[in-house]
Design brief:
- By secondary structure, the chain is of the alpha+beta class.
- It is built from 9 helices and 8 strands.
- The strands form 2 sheets. Strands 1, 2, 3, 4, 5 and 6 form a 6-stranded antiparallel beta sheet that branches. Strands 7-8 form a two-stranded antiparallel ribbon.
- The longest helix is centred in the middle third of the chain and has 27 residues.
- The radius of gyration is 19 Å and the shape is globular.
- About 3% of the residues have low confidence.
Amino acid sequence: MHYNSRDDMKQQEIHVPLCDSCSLESGSIFKYLTPDEVEALNFEKDFRQYKRGDILYQEGNRISGFFCVNSGIIKVFKTGFDGKEQIIRFAKKGDIIAYRSVLSNELACTSAKVIEDCQVCFIPSEILISFIKTNPAYALELLKLACHELGEANSFITDIAQKTVRERLAEVLLFLVNDFGLDDEYFLNISLTREEMANIVGTATESVIRLLSEFKSDKLVELNGRKIKILNTKGLEKISNVFN
């Protein structure tokens, strides 16, 4: 594993995104900053590039800032006592990660790993704290974001306790459709291994392989390696009980 691969990536003609244009395009939380705060952010941030498999930070480590995703996909996960990953969420363009550990001044409670080559901005913790102290609108939106993520975590706990693995897998597929969309051929715009799928659902890899095969037989999906084509959204909704 590499812990900071930007040194071994080509640095030719790197375009460092400006936070004001990036936040408007992606709808990130930085759109609530004042022009002076955006200028300070552009000056203080550290633009970084990572490849698939790179680790941004690890659970239990102290981190000195947080990350805003400019491109690519990053998985945020916790590791159990048996070494098995439990994927908490995926971060894509406009998302921020590791900010809660900065706010709480605690060790990182999750790890972050790149699953699609990405560009991120690393922002020192002092910047985040100063914005919270001086910009009430930004602080409120950050609080809303933290509450939303807590709500998603609570829903996941409920699903683990009350839904079958089949129902959870169908719900995860719908979540991926909603979060990443489909291409012109109705394939998910995110490519995951079967193990990664299992680590979202919270089950064994073998169970996901078997259930995806069943979904294929039921003409709910088509499988092409890691790529998954969604054929019947309504059928997945019925299985998942997502609207019940």
